[in-house]
């Protein structure tokens, strides 16, 4: 901030009467929705439980690269992770999208995910947004989780049930 002039005698102090932010000519904000969780825009995974065996694995769930990851889970394991935005800022969200990895094994996929929002920190408190039933179309695409109205969030928590009977590999999203 550079003060170019002062009104009246300042007596050694400065009072700010008006302040403007000027952008570089030609830059315009995005007109429509965009992926606030994209790592290139500062999206990140704040934590995951259980802790994953490969560092950075959960961050790959946010990019658009079709990487294939699996995790080993015991029967009854609950998987949970929190996604934050650039510098833990708040963002207004309208919908969530899930892309299964390719290849993906139907028996190793989450069937539903509980989605919660925190407006304060990655530790909560958490406000339930609902259960996202991960319905797959014939082409493998997953129906998005559309919020009834735009919702402010600093963090989103995703919680899913792992295998019910036998231990094994489990497919997280390729892109969230």
C-alpha termini separation: 38 Å
Cα shape: elongated
- Poorly predicted ranges (pLDDT <50, ≥5 residues)? none
CA radius of gyration is: 21 Å
**Coarse structural class:** mainly beta
How many runs of DSSP E, i.e. beta strands? 9
Can you describe this structure?
This protein is mainly β. 2% of the residues lie in helices and 31% in strands. The protein contains one helix and nine strands, in the order βαββββββββ. The strands form three sheets. A five-stranded antiparallel beta sheet has the order 1-3-8-5-6, with no helix packed on it. Strands 2-9 form a two-stranded antiparallel ribbon. The longest helix is centred in the N-terminal third of the chain and has 4 residues, at 57-60. The chain starts with 43 loop residues before the first strand and ends in a 6-residue tail after the last strand. The mean pLDDT is 83.
Brief digest:
This protein is an all-beta fold.
Highlighted features:
176 residues; mainly beta; 5-stranded antiparallel sheet; two-stranded antiparallel ribbon
Topology:
Elements: E1 44-49, H1 57-60, E2 71-73, E3 78-84, E4 91-96, E5 112-118, E6 127-133, E7 145-153, E8 155-161, E9 168-170
